Amino acid sequence: MAQYTTGELAKLCNVSVRTVQYYDQADLLKPASLTENGRRLYGDAQVQTLKVILGYKQLGFSLKAIQKVMASQASTDTLALLVEQQLNQLIRKETDLANQKAALQFVLQSIQNTSAVPFEMTISDIEDAMAKTTQLKRLHRRMLMWGLLIDGVEIGLLILGFLSGIWWPMWIGIPVIIAMAIYVTTFYYQETVYLCPNCKTVFKPRLSKMFFARHTPKTRQLVCPSCGQKNYCVEQSAFGRG
Question: Alpha-carbon torsion 21, 22, 24, 25, what sign?
């Protein structure tokens, strides 16, 4: 029967001597025997035990969980329960990592849009801003649907007029289309505010200023009422603002 010293066991399993000693102190890995001068000796059974411990560690088990498995007589049932707990913990970590990733992407986007590092932002600020960003995306999708509907009605009436020569539905439909456009524009105006990249003031311009301003998909060229500078201000959702 092979015998190994602490150093030999550590080398065999590719761990440090301190790791072997640590598991010994935790009552997970006891030596097979002791020499007369107190030197620890380990056998093949202890080699397998150490490999099992290292396997559990690689799966992410805590030392306390490993102790439960090793000490349990019904180790299969205990292991199944602990594996399930470990899986649930990993799922929660994945969710947390996904949330962190989304927060980092938002902060990066904020920096790129405003050319400034938001040092003053707290976690609650980031979460609030992310919620507003999600709300703004929903608003854009809603506006797209309204735009497609208005275009569809207008094109349909034109086709009807050209093909059949009947134009009275067009003259009735024009006021309806105008009313729909006014409603959509007013609704969009009420649901958005703008962030000045210079002084970080959030403001709502007059409807006429917003409607006729030059714009990109995420910004509009507006004059900030606080600092007076004209910049491409970042569009935000008015969600949650008093």
Answer: positive
